[in-house]
Amino acid sequence: MYARAATTVALLGAGALVLPLSTAAAQPGSAPTSAPASSAAARQDRPLVVAHRGASAQAPENTFAAIDRARELGFTWVENDVQRTRDGELVIMHDDTLKRTTNVEALYPDRAPWKVADFTAKEIARLDAGSWFSPKYAGQRVPTLKQYLRRVSHNHQKLVFEFKRPELYPGIEKQGLRVLRDTGWLDRHHVTGKLVVQSFSADSVKKVHALRPDVKTGFLGTPAVADLPKYARFADQINSTHTSISASYVSAIHARKGPHGKPLEIFTWTVNDGPAAVRAARFGVNGIITNTPDVVRKALRDS
Fold first, then answer.
1. Helix runs in the chain, H state only
2. Are strands 237-239 and 267-268 parallel, antiparallel or unpaired?
3. Per-residue buried b or exposed e for 72-107, using 16+ beta carbons within 10 Å of the residue's own CB
4. Is 166 exposed, middle or buried (0-12, 13-18, 19+ CB in 10 A)?
5. With a threshold of 0.85, does the pTM exceed it?
6. Residue 179: pLDDT above 80?
């Protein structure tokens, strides 16, 4: 997610096409087979602790290594970012350029500014997405969404799925939901407890809700309290940066029911130190999204 709070945006309409449910099973990918060190304890944490782009303080963000590291630490929930290649493949990448987290500049020196949308999936598959973080992670790749979902399934993890910059990729909501469906992520088991789809774009969240009203959705931002009823029509969560919230704001969110008739929730981000985590927890947030899930978990348990 961007390191800033999104302000209230225009609440535009969305199509009413609904994708069918699927009972397809997710295909496992290769992954470490050792059990998480403390998964039972992690499941008991309140608020939920979500590993932002995986355990991204310890492994390169949005890679298999990052979600595998979250698993090793005992964290069930991970968060990712989804964008689209030139030839229409959905990939896991936070920035809309490949420069910061891959060797794209060295491999394709004449392709500046190295936008995700300017490269094919095959070209992106060649990139090293780990060496920028540490030589230990040389050879990590940019996963496709299909590959990533299968790895998360294999790890028995849950997902906060973010459409990143959807205005750059018309139709990405319908496409993303189709991939979720085809990999087993839109069956009842996943929809009722393993998936949240979020975006900074209210229009994008509205589209997801219109296409699949059963899917839990989150709007990234800090709307005015007076505007919460508008968002509650299509968002189950209001997910705000931790520097923008207060106990009274969290209470106002919880006082409003979302589209599924349950109180709105709030997952706050990006909380990377103990005192900030304890502060957010005392406000009553439902979840904390963090690059340092182990630090946040320890602070919450010690508080």
1. 39-44, 64-73, 104-107, 121-125, 145-154, 172-182, 188-191, 202-211, 228-231, 247-254, 274-283, 293-302
2. unpaired
3. bbbbbbbbbbbbbbeeebbbbbbbbbbeebbbbeee
4. buried
5. yes
6. yes
Q: How many residues does the chain have?
A: 303
Residue appearing with tokens 């595998």: 68
**Distance separating alpha carbons of residues 164 and 168, to the nearest angstrom:** 9
Q: What is the pLDDT of residues 253-290, one digit of tens each?
A: 999 999 999 999 999 999 999 999 999 999 999 999 99
Closest CA to 189 of 180, 176, 200, 179: 180
| Statement: residue 297 has pLDDT above 80 | yes
User: Which tokens is 130 given?
Assistant: 């780990």
User: Which residue's structure tokens are 């008739």?
Assistant: 261
The band of 242, judged by pLDDT with boundaries at 50, 70 and 90, is very high
25 burial via Cβ count (<10 Å: 0-12, 13-18, 19+): exposed
> Of 1-10, 119-128, 147-156, 162-171, where does mean pLDDT reach its minimum?
1-10
Is 52 an annotated catalytic residue?
yes
3-state secondary structure of 242: helix
Structure tokens, 71: 């698993």
Burial grade of 66 (CB within 10 A; 0-12, 13-18, 19 or more): buried
